[in-house]
Amino acid sequence: MAEEILINVTPQETRVAVLNHGVIDELHIERASHRGLVGNIYLGRVARVLPGMQSAFVEIGLERAAFLHVADIWEYRQAQHSPEITPKPIEKHLHEGQSLIVQVIKDPIGTKGARLSTQISLAGRLLVHLPQDSHIGISQRIEDESERTLLKTTLTSLLPADAAHGGYIIRTMAEKSAERDLARDVAYLTKLWADVQARAKSVKPGTVIHQDLTLAERVLRDFATEDTQRLFVDSPGAHQSMIEFATRYAPALTDRLRLHQAVRPLFDMYGVEQEIERAIHRRVDLKSGGYVIIDQTEALTTIDVNTGGFVGVRSFDDTIFKTNLEAAQTIARQLRLRNLGGIIIIDFIDMDLPEHREAVLDALNAAIATDRTRLTVNGFTHLGLVEMTRKRTRESLAHVLCETCPTCSGRGEIKTAQTVCYEILREVMREAKQFNPREFRILASQSVIDLLLDDESAALAHLSGDIGKPVSLQVETGYTQEQFDIVLL
Questions:
Q1: What is the pTM of this model?
Q2: DSSP structural state of residue 88
Q3: Section 311-321 average pLDDT
Q4: Pairing of strands 4-9, 375-380
Q5: What is the rounded CA–CA span in Å between residue 456 and residue 453?
Q6: CA angle 19, 342, 67 (to 5 degrees)
Q7: pLDDT computed for residue 313 by the predictor
Q8: Strand order in the sheet with 386-390
Q9: What residues contact 377, with CB distance under 8 A and at least 6 apart?
């Protein structure tokens, strides 16, 4: 649970750091130009139905059409859970040009458009409203059976006798909540759904009809709990709007909201800026002297654990075991910090003792237990790797803050100057067989030209003799090490 929450607000972006025991546990960044779409509700228009894929593309006013699978259509899901009804294919539910209310359940990631659902859910602080449903569900994280029964009974008593009220899911945050708090959430969500329906009737397809709260407001709804001691925000405007929101929906947090007015920036005081900088690097150092390497690819994320400078004091097995235990804690935190999702493969240092492997796996499971995002750990494979998945809900921190390197095009390495020299020599020979210029001029980076003048000068002279033409060199300071041009004079 979050003990302290830091909120840095500027006109361009909002950044949130969640601290536990003084350690930064989560980072969230929302930029005004790229606000997350999850939770937004649109009046969409079906652009294309694909029976072969049992899916459809829906225009919702974004750059790319959004994706709707048949499994995310409310009527289809209802039929799946009813023995009397046979689920119909997507072409029986949708047709091109059709207008329908849809909600984004996954942000656009990479080249993929947003993913949609026709099952609408509206989140409050304590409840999630499911207008099309009729049942009341309870978060699995509320484990006390008497508390579960009490919450369900209390909520049921607040709703009309008929099923027109829709369904609700009682969130983990509702544990120990008073009846008046639940009633406040029901009233808020009922009015919100009525507003969504009214707006859907007055707008054109491709229009947003409900936008989720800003990140600063979602902090109060989703992150802050009764264990949260303080929330610091460094913007007077955001502080005021958060006070107003808390007064209406989370009055217990009002007195814990503090406006940061010190000269030193909020994130600098708590070391968040340095943590953000470290979170985009591959290597994470462990206190013991070992380290972890994290590589994020399109298909999956790989994590490699190494002992590094840690030599231990008892035995090699003990050194490996302690490094892996520390790495398990660090990996769980880095997954949250970097918001890594999808398939994750962890290569712990090989352990000979089965009890060590079990202990490391237990430590990993304990460390990820507080993660807000759903994870599944499949244990060690026959190759000694730990396979796990973490639900991908938004772009990773690296994808938000970084872009592909223009020099290496994302490879993470560049050709050596010697490799480029040999490419140039081959290209000059190729050009000499096709053209008959007076002279060849090589334009390249300083490092490549230096090598052609030094170690490769004999090869260059030999080439000039072979083609019977002079070859001149010219440094282009704007070229990367891999770039070059051959000019015919």
A1: 0.72
A2: P
A3: 77
A4: unpaired
A5: 6
A6: 110
A7: 61
A8: 283-285, 291-296, 300-306, 342-347, 386-390, 375-380
A9: 361, 364, 365, 368, 386, 387, 388
* Strand 127-130 to 167-170 pairing: antiparallel
Residue of 112, 137, 132, 109 whose CA lies nearest to 122: 132
The residue to which tokens 């010219």 are assigned: 474
pLDDT band (50, 70, 90) for residue 2: low
Which residue carries 């005004």 as its tokens?
32
Residues 6+ apart with CB under 8 A from 222: 123, 372
Question: CA angle at residue 222 from 104 to 100, to 5 degrees?
Answer: 20
Other residues' Cβ atoms within 10 Å of the Cβ of residue 463: 19
Residue tagged 């997954």 (tokens) = 335
Instruction: Please say whether the beta carbons of 320 and 349 come within 8 A.
Output: yes
The confidence band for 311, taking pLDDT boundaries of 50, 70 and 90, is low
Say whether 134 sits in a helix, a strand or coil: coil
What is d(CA 53, CA 69) in angstroms, rounded to the nearest whole number? 8
Q: What is the pLDDT of residue 146?
A: 92
Long-range Cβ pairs for the range 207-213 (8 Å, 24+): 207/42, 207/43, 207/61, 208/40, 208/41, 208/42, 208/60, 208/61, 209/41, 209/42, 209/43, 209/101, 210/40, 210/41, 210/122, 211/39, 211/40, 212/36, 212/38, 212/39, 212/40, 212/123, 213/245
SS3 content of the chain, % helix, strand, coil (to 5): 35, 25, 35
Task: For residue 421, give the nearest of 469, 467, 462 by alpha carbon.
Answer: 462
Q: What is the pLDDT of residues 267-284, one digit of tens each?
A: 999 999 999 999 999 999
Tell me the C-alpha distance between 348 and 385, whole Å.
7
The edge-to-edge listing of strands for the beta sheet with 23-31 is 23-31, 13-20, 4-9, 230-233, 257-259
* Predicted confidence (pLDDT) per residue in 402-458, tens digit: 888 888 888 888 999 999 999 999 999 999 999 999 999 999 999 999 999 999 999
Longest dimension (CA), the chain: 97
Residue ranges of alpha helices (H) inside 389-456 are: 397-401, 417-434, 446-453
Structure tokens, 103: 């909600």
Contact partners, residue 331, CB within 8 Å, separation at least 6 = 292, 303, 346, 364, 367
> No. of H helices and E strands in the chain?
13, 24
Residue-wise pLDDT for 359-374, tens only, equals 999 999 999 988 878 8
Confidence of residue 78 (pLDDT cuts 50, 70, 90): confident
State residue 198's pLDDT score.
93
pLDDT recorded at residue 38: 87
